[in-house]
Fold this sequence. Notes:
The protein has 3 domains: 2-148, 2-Layer Sandwich (Beta-Lactamase); 169-333, 2-Layer Sandwich (Alpha-Beta Plaits), CATH 3.30.70.270; 339-424, PucR C-terminal helix-turn-helix domain (Arc Repressor Mutant, subunit A). α1 (2-30) packs parallel to α4, α2 packs antiparallel against α4 (129-168) and α10 packs across α14 (410-424). By secondary structure, the chain is an alpha+beta fold. Helices cover 53% and strands 13% of the residues. The protein has 14 helices and 9 strands. The protein has a 5-stranded mixed beta sheet, with helices on both faces. It starts with a helix and ends with a helix. It comes from Knoellia locipacati.
Amino acid sequence: MESLRRVVDHQAELLRREDEVNRILVQTVLRGGSLGDLCEALVELFTGVALVLTTDGRVMTTAGSEEDVAEVLALDCFDRTGRLIVEDEPVGEREPGGVKSERTLVRIVAGTSDHGLLAVFTPGRTLTTTDVHGLERAATVAALAITKEQAVSAVEGKYRAEFLRDTLVGRGGGPAEAVAHAASLGWDLDRRMVVVVAETDEDDSHTSRASDEVRSLQERFVRAWVQAVRTREPKAPVAGFSQEVVALLPAPCGGEGEQETVMRSVGEIIKVVSGDGGGGRRSFSTGVSRPLESVADIPRAYSEALRAVAVGRQMQGEAAVMHFDALGIYRLLSLIPDSADLRAFVDEALGELATDDQSSYADLRQTLQVLLDTNLNVAETARILFFHYNTLRYRIAKLEQMLGPFTTDPQLRLTLALALRIRQMRGV
Length: 428
């Protein structure tokens, strides 16, 4: 009888627990609760930290004390950008090696759409099977909240994107009108800004991916940028178009170190969006314009950011990050439409040194580059390359035999410097 009573009491406790979970979830739904409300309800139920994450592990919403949330985000299951390493995290009851974990994840699914993950971290205790079932029901509530938010965001995003696109090409109206319209959308254009363009490195117009997959990847890319920008600058305009995302970020009021400050801020956002490249994220390159003082300058700055993306990718390859002012001579070289002309110029200027037919050619090109960079300072070049003075003298003589008297001919030095820069550009 005692054993039977314990079984009955246990079942009664499970039913009471399920009723409590259902009651709280139903109340959350009836109140039209957000993801934040849902996470707060889960913390009340399970005591710990609750999170809603995107499919690739970005944290969307958290609930719990600040100390507990900070401790959770410092766990090894999160990378240095704060992304949950979803590749290593199974869903449902975690029982690796027969030992249950103090964190549980369930998928947020609506029909065939995977909206992300609902996770609870319960230090000091593990969830029971009944608790996991309750968490799965909570995931259904999360799916409803996300679907509602996406529907609202889609409408708002459409108007925001259309206005930003018009502004970028100079069709946003007069400065005062554009500033007022932006304010009605929750954006601030009445300040000093830079235009930032992030463009995926993969060409979606020439891909083997299915159209649905491409659209899903681009939507994820846009959401990541929007969330990363809004977290830091809630009033900064940001929207996605085709393969790019454009953001207008505030810029410091001039002075020394302005460019470094802007690039540091942009770099922090890029680090969050890229998330160490995990979670199925695609590589992208980023261009930053010069600061603009007025809405009327936005089209010019947008063109600069686009140019910085294109040339930056040529100079650095994929995942390039480039400020327009850092383009230097590459800015002019990129305007030459026919790369065959550039290649011919390199071949004529460098001759056999333009090729890699011999292993020594790469070393000679490096020697030439450093010599030109140091304005033919032999001692400084020898120090940089760790060469003996006589060894460098021998190399200079060999270079002049191959290229001509560049040490005494400034026009030849300019030609060689340009040829070396062009050779560094990809696709030439």
